[in-house]
Amino acid sequence: MESPPNRPFIVAGESTAEALSLACLLCSGAGSPTDVSGVGALVFDTPDSLQRFHASKSAPRIAIIHTAEVERQISDLYQSCHCIIARPTHDIATNPDIRLGLPSASVFDKALKKVGICSEQIDLLARQTGRSPTVLRRRLSNIPAIREPAWSRDHQIARKLMPAAFVGTWRKDSAADRSVLQTLAGAEDYDEVERAVLELHAQIESPLWSTGEFRGVTSRIDALFGIARFVTKGDIERFLAVASTVLGEQDPAVELPEHERWTAGIQGKVRARSEVLRQGIRDTLVLMAIYGNDLFQSRIGGEFEMRTSLLIKELLTPLTLQGLL
User: Fold this and answer.
1) Between the CA of residue 209 and those of 170, 190, 244, what are the distances in Å?
2) In terms of Cα–Cα distance, which of 232, 100, 94, 104 is closest to 166?
3) Are strands 9-13 and 98-99 parallel, antiparallel or unpaired?
């Protein structure tokens, strides 16, 4: 910030709201080693507000942007003032300068004690939220629209979100990815999944994002915790079966001589499913291994944490080059 502006900076969090909160905190000077308060930072919510400031040549020192609509209107504003863009971590186009992770158990405990929450309640909240600030905000809010967004209240909408919540991110132009989503949705064809995506996009505070051929949930942990009460044992069984198939797929690149493996994409030696979908399923397995019992056990039974851990062990045994790539 002490240097002349020359490019936008990207802050990414589990949700856009987390990234936006960090950007605002940084600009307020609170807790920072250098007091930068009073620098004239503004959060722009609409393209019109940004255009007015841009046209008036009276831009603030720092412009904070948190929607794609406003981001598309930045133009060359970043050359006259610092621009901070808040995005969700799972947005495939995000290559952030700062990436927020989940708080550690000690940080989570300290923060909640500071606002007057007792230790017993903190332990419960840690299990119910996975220490996600986004999910915690919902749990503690007294505002119904924040506590339970439409997509987590309506059974039909939550069911439509379930396949996306399980895979996190996928490519619409990948036939293999489409097949995975179709299987998880129990749909006759992928068009049903795409129609559900369009319907979820129309929701206020939509849980999905879409960029070109990529689709994904804005916050995997928020989506998974939000729809947990509508997930059935059959849904879990389908996901674990899909995860075993997808992550068990051998990498054809290893069939090439080592010095040619960098050309695997050119030679068509790539896995059928996209890497973003594979990574998304891996991330969901980690969440299931940690929080599966708290999310599902009391309602539908089953040792989901143990089953997920066993699946991961099976996928890594024996440990081979194909399994690592």
Assistant:
1) 11, 18, 26
2) 232
3) parallel
0.85 exceeded by pTM: no
Q: Which amino acid is at 212?
A: G
What span, in angstroms and rounded, lies between the C-alpha atoms of 244 and 248?
6
Rounded Cα gap, residues 46 and 29, in angstroms: 25
Rounded to whole angstroms, the Cα distance separating 253 from 269 reads 5
CB 281 within 8 A of CB 242: yes
Alpha-carbon distances of 242 from 162, 223, 276, rounded to whole Å: 14, 19, 15
- Per-residue pLDDT of the chain (325 residues), as tens digits, is 778 888 899 999 888 888 999 888 888 764 444 444 445 788 999 998 888 877 776 656 889 999 888 988 888 888 888 899 998 876 656 688 998 888 999 999 999 999 999 988 998 898 888 888 988 988 898 888 888 888 888 899 899 999 999 999 999 999 999 999 999 999 889 999 999 988 888 777 788 888 788 888 888 888 998 999 999 989 999 999 999 999 888 776 676 677 666 666 666 667 788 989 999 999 898 888 888 888 888 788 777 778 888 888 888 776 665 554 4
The DSSP bridge pattern shows strands 214-217 and 208-211 to be antiparallel
Structure tokens, 260: 């040619």
Nearest CA to 199 among 188, 211, 208, 186?
Answer: 208
Separation between Cα atoms, residue 234 and residue 180, nearest integer Å: 15
Q: Is 63 left (phi over 0), alpha (psi -120 to 50) or beta?
A: beta
Burial class (CB in 10 A: 0-12, 13-18, 19+), 193: buried
Question: ∠67-85-198 over CA atoms, to 5°?
Answer: 30
Q: Give the integer Cα–Cα distance in Å for 221 and 86.
A: 18
DSSP string for 207-230: SEEEETTEEEES-HHHHHHHHGGG
Residue type, 58: S
CA 286 remoteness from chain centre: 14
Evaluate whether 1 touches 82 at the Cβ level (below 8 Å).
yes
